[in-house]
Each structure stands twice: as C-alpha cells, then as structure tokens.
Amino acid sequence: MRLERRAHRPLFLVLVSPLIAVAAALAIAGILIAMAGAPVLEAYWRIVTGAFGTRLAATETFTRATPLILTGLAAAVAFRARVWNIGAEGQFYVGAITVAALGSSTLAALPGPLLIPTLFAAGALAGMLLMLLPLWLRLRFSVDEVVTSLLLNFVAVLFVSLLVEGVLKDPLAFGWPQSLPVSERALLPKLIMRSRLHIGLAVAVAAAIIVHLLQSRTVFGLRTRAAGLSPAGAAFAGVPLGLTLVKVACLSGGLAGLAGAIEVMGVKGYVTTDLSPGYGYSGIIVAMLANLHPVGVIAAAVFTAAMFVGADGMSRALGIPTYIADVIVSLSLLTMLVALFFTQYRIRR
Amino acid sequence: MMALFDILASAGLWAAVLRIATPLIFGTLGAVLCERSGVLNLGIEGIMTFGAMVGWLTVYNGADLWTGMLVAALAGAVFGLMHALLSVTLGLSQHVTGLGITLFASSLSYFLFRLNVPLASTPPTIVPFKPVSIPGLSDLPFFGQAIFTQTMPTYLAILTAIVMSYVIFRMPLGLAIRMTGENPHAAEAQGINPVRIRYSAIMAGSALMGMGGAFLTLSAFNSFFPTMVQGRGWICIALVVFASWRPGRALLGALLFAFFDAFQLRLQPVLGDRVPYQIFLMIPYILSIAALALVARRAKVPQALMQAYRRGER
Fold first, then answer.
1. Any idea what DSSP says for residue A117?
2. Is B95 near chain A, with CB under 8 Å?
3. Partners of residue A3 on adjacent β-strands
4. What is the 8-class DSSP label of residue B231?
5. Tens of pLDDT, residues B210-266
6. Cystine design at A70: which of A75, A259, B13, B96 (Cβ 3.0–4.6 Å)?
7. Are strands A2-5 and B149-150 parallel, antiparallel or unpaired?
8. Whether the predicted pLDDT of B136 surpasses 80
9. Do the Cβ atoms of A148 and B289 come within 8 Å?
10. In chain A, which residue's Cα lies nearest the Cα of B310?
11. pLDDT at B314 over 60
12. Among the four given CATH numbers 1.10.3470, 3.40.390, 1.10.150, 1.20.1440, the one describing domain B13-117+134-298
C-alpha cells in the first residue's frame, strides 16, 4: 500500500472535505460522550438546539462567531503566506485594551460617526504592532515566528492584567480587576434588538469579503500566495518578499486586534483578563477548517461558535463537561488536515 | 544590593532552580530528540498538559507515583504516534499538525479531568514525591543541601540528559537519528529507515514531554488545574534553539532559565511595592524571545527539520 499524488485535485473533494472532517470528529468525540455515559445522538441534538433552537440561542451563536471570523481571517491570511502567526490571542488583547484606554479617555468626546472608526483603527493598529515584532525577528534574525508570536500571547495578557489592575482599573468595579468602561457612545449599535448581537458581525463579514477580494483580485494577493508556495521562486519572479510579508503580518495582526476592539465595543464595554475564551487559538482551527479561504472562514466560525454555545446547554442537561466543545473543534482541525491530504493523494496498492 | 546578595546566598534559591528546571529539562530533551530526527513537535504544550493530567489522575485513583509517571510517558508516546502519523506518514505541515495536537491534547485533558473530578472549591490533592537526600553529597556545605536534596524525577531528568547526550553523539543509533534529521535520503542510502527513526524519535521524545508535564502535578505541586503548564512547552521549543540541539546544553539552558525564574520569584517581595508583579511574570517569556534572537543566526538547525520525507519524492 502506498500513497500516490493525484494529478488533479478534484474540486468536489475539496468542497466536501470539511463536512467529512467534521463528521469524523463528531464520531470520535461521540466515543468520549458514550464513555461518559450519555446518549450520543441526544447530546448532539442538544448542541444543535442549544446553538440555534431559539432566537436567543441563535443570536448568541452569531455574537460568539463575530470575533472568531476575525481571528480566523487573521490566521488564514497569515498561513497562506506561510507567516505562522499564532499570536492572535495576544493581538486580540492588545486591540481590546487599546480601545478600552482610548474609549474611556477624553478622545471619546469625538463625534459618534468618527469615534467608532477611530477606535477600530486604533485596536487594529495595536494588533499590527504586536505582530510586527515576531516578523521583524524573523526577517532580521531568522527566528521562527511560531514560538515568538506564541510567547508574546503570555506577555500581552500579563500586560493587560497590569493595566486593568493599575492605571486603567475601574474604581467602581468593587475591587475586581477590570478596565474602565468605554464611553457609551463608543458602544456598537445592535444588529437585532433585545439580543447581544451587534453590527460587529457585519464588519467581520465585510472584512472576510474584502480579504477575499484582496487575495483573488490584487497583485498583493498574488504575491502573498507566491510567497507562501515558494519563497525562493517568488523572490526570483521579482516579488519583494520582505515587504509582502510585512504587509501580510500587518493585515493578520490588524484583523486580530480589530477582533479585540469589536468584542469590547460590541459585547462587554470593558476589558478583563478573561475577555477571550481562547478566540485567538480557535481562530487557527477556524482558518484550517475553511482551508484558508476567507469566505469559508465565516462558515467555519459559525460552526465553531455553535459548538461552544450549544455545548453549554448540553453540558448542563447531560452532565458532560463543556470541554467537549473544545475536543470536537480541535479534533475537527486534525481530521480536516487528513481530509485535505486525501484531496491531494490517494491510496494505491 | 544586600538584598540581591541575600537571595543568591539562600539555599532555597538553588533548590528552587533545580525544581523549576526539571519539567523544562524533560520537555527540552524530548523536543531535541524529535527535532534531531527532523520533526518539529509543537504538540509539546498539549502533551505536557496531558501528562500532568493523566499522571495526576492515575495517582489520585490509587496507583503509586512511578506508575503515574509511566502512564504520563505512555500517553505522551501515543500523542507522539499521532503526530508521527500526520507529519511523517502523511507528510503534513509540522507547524499545523503540532498545534492541532496541542489544542486536542489540552482540551482532552480538561475534558477527562472534569469528567473524573467534579468542580470543587478546593481541588483534590495527592501526596507528591518526597525529596531524597543523596548520602554523602547532601552533607556538603551550602550547595549540598540545595542540589542533592531533590525528588527522584529531578535526578532522573539530569540522568536522561547525560544518557541522551551519549546516545546522540556516541552511538550508531544517535548517528542514524542525526543523519535522518540532516538528510533522510542519504540516511536511507546508508540502509537506515528514516520513517522508523522518525517514528521512534517522536514517540520517545513525546514520552519525555509527558513526564515533564507529570512532574508538575506529581512533584512540584500536588493537584492539577487547567492552564497549569503556562507556556512551558513553548519555552522548551525556544530552549532547543538556545541549546543548539545538544542535550548537554539543553540541560544547561534549562538550568540557566530556571535560575532567572527562581531569582525573579525571590526578587518580587523585595521590589514588590515599586514594580507590579506582572512585570516579573513576563520575564521568562521575554527572556526566551531574547535568547532566540541572540542565537538564531548562529543556530545549527538540523537541515531536514520540517521537511517531510517521502521515498522517491523530493
């Protein structure tokens, strides 16, 4: 038995591979649920109804999907150029804390239509700057950015902790370490009344479409792909490699920073050190499930969010730890890798 | 100034250095073994988390401490097998598979832990390894007490570094591992099976990572809680580069790193009123990044690191 490269990559297989991957992940996680002594099908049905069954559940799922779309895009644009930005979690936090700092300051006196875009830009800029450090270390000292961007996540969260227990601490929060709230005028309008769903979702979807157009229609997109597929070939073809990677890093870090900004302005209004339940790390899974396609990221983010939201209710009803959602999505990442492999290879005797 | 001297002169500091270094020694040695064969194992963070969980759970359920260590090592090897299947047999991106293993192994640890130990205000504890004095050596003045009164796994970690150094540089097996990491095609021409070497190296390396994790719950602390590994795995990956892929230097690197960590812990109460504690907590991560920048240019990276090997395919 051996593996043989396919001459063509069948489009059909590429399109169904995420479905096969998710099905396989659910089957494997089903074994764990059965081991825990709960009915597997009922558990999955409860996840589905918990995520989409009611109006509240569905809006909650889409609220949760909003930051995941952005962190998923952050990973997708970076990975396509083989820039391994694993630091979306940290970039999310610096974006969030920047918005909290500016949105609670005198800057909040800006007129409304100016204030919100300014804060978006500030959050994105903070994320960008945090990603530029690992990229600079890669270009200057050839340090693998995986490890540096990962380590910076811990630094960023500690930095946020320092601020929310120090200069940005809310004196009215009964001693809890949380930041000053942003001005009410900086809060995002709701997309659907009487829910937590805010216009951040529209911004995230727009970002996905813009990234898609950038990647498919512009020189920058072409250069990104070239840099990812073969750096040496790209350089030979006259692609300014360093500059392209800097742009990719800015885009990736900026999207993750924007995710943090939107989460503060759309949902919480202030920053704590548990603002993100791992949105940065889940973004990697979202990007891989989408096969790095920006529009696919939207679907993958909704799936991931649905698992997390749905697992909450299921967990309460059946006594299965909520961590089952993390298990399912991380398993989907692994099964997706295998599924994608078999779109390129087949088994021959 | 006197305060600094007091810290350096306290036996507690030097005992802590070895204690803090132990999981890093295991983890870094495991990563060195994987990377020497040409495979980056970013599963380390998750494998350490799983080792910490499963080792603790085994002991909590009545087994003895060494059985806990063994189970952690076996679990690590199983995750290593998974990583090898994906990165060696299928030749997938080692970055992505490693991260996938980390995410999967950590969420599975949290799931299994919560399933077996319901949420409680005080987490249940076990009786951890006790320090063992080495007769004779521990009677030496000052350092004797500090260095030769550790728990058994710490001695085991140091022994592993020495053994691995010998195996990698003095034995045919080590030569085969190094060749596979430098040029698997040339290795195969010499009659070495690169696939088998990589599988064994990844599984053995991952077993060491699992033991490093288990040290946290079976010796350094006595209970398990989510996120307790705290990026130690990533620090190990940085230490591998710092150690230039040499087990001996990995030992020294881990000790040096642990020294800074132990030192900052003792500096905190001294400077605590002027400097926020978060600054101290940042130091290990910033130090790792700085160390990488310092040595990365001169690093002797195994030439086939992160390159998939497929027979007859270049």
1. H
2. yes
3. A347
4. T
5. 999 999 999 999 999 988 999 999 999 999 999 999 999 999 999 999 999 998 888
6. A259
7. unpaired
8. no
9. yes
10. A3
11. no
12. 1.10.3470
